Prior knowledge:
By secondary structure, the chain is of the alpha+beta class.
Amino acid sequence: MMPRKPGPIQGNSVLLNQLASQVEIARLLPEGSEPYRLAQTFRNLPSLPDRFNSAFLDQGWVFVEFACSHDAAEHALSLKAAGASQDEIDQHLAARFLGLEPIKWQSLKTLGGGMADPDHPVRGSIVQRVFDAYGDGDYLVVVPLVLMLVDGFGVTVTGTKSMFADLAELDELFQSVESVAGHPSALKALLVHLRKGQRGYSEHPLTMPLRNGILHGTRLNYANTATAAKSINLLAAVVEWARDTAPEPKDEITKREWNMKFLSSNLTRLNPASPQQALELFQDALMRKRATDVVALINYHPVVTLLSEKLREWRELEAHEITIEPRTLWEVVGTNQTTEQWARREALLCVTINGGRRVCHEHTLIASRSAELSRLHLPSVWQIDLNILGAIRRALVAD
């Protein structure tokens, strides 16, 4: 049986799905509002990694979530649509696409095994040498060192296999569909292009860091800006892949289990079946200073949020009286038959500060019934959107 082809990055990434949901919520707001304008700006962002990789992966570029400029990627797509040459696009991406500092520090942390006291100090020193050489324009040094780092790190991760030489045997390592760079359609597909063999010796200029020709000494005319930048891009993709596919640390497992128990028990007990019920329970929790109920009733991400820290955060706010006075009826989008619903209403948010002074301002209250809860087999209930916390903080600093 042929392996099932993975879906697009957009449909699998937790971060991109969260962003898409936030954009959809913001688009419910009045057209003149700042969140609505931001939603228009970011509406194409969730699909950007897939669109970018589709256009440029064959040329040696791959989108890396932690390291790549969204604006530079969109501009490269505009250049391609306008008929620009690949050389012009390469020069643009080499100059604007990569965040070198985060790539450097994440590479030191991941490949070197730490920064202050690394587990692999020699490999860490080579990472540092790569970025020193890149800053100096010494691309003759940069490209082979990156290929050596990637090759050797792959052997460390797998135990025996090179990500280049034994790619066909490593399918199980490229099934982290929630990773952006580590998605099977991203890094794995890029490595297929970079491991292509070349026969005989040639001094024709390279525009991609082709591993076999460079490390075997048959393609040595690689020392240019585009090839060096693509090698740094490859390094960033390997770091993101390694980070996203690494075994989950015990403290992360413990945190997730704590979150699941906390949400399961509290959401089952509260069970807000409508946005109005969620608001009433939320207001009651604020009045009674019940941080446990407040945190359960806000749509924090149930896995990646450290909910125990949010309890402390809301307990610090218990010194203030917080009230929400509705101004309009709820507008609900979606039906109970769908996995996700949103609702909004205009309200007056009031917070007491500095000896009893009351600060009030208009606020668009958002509620949602998140598909994420259903996916995790948690009660599918209504919660208040996290933007309420930002509104409270703005009131507190308004003095």
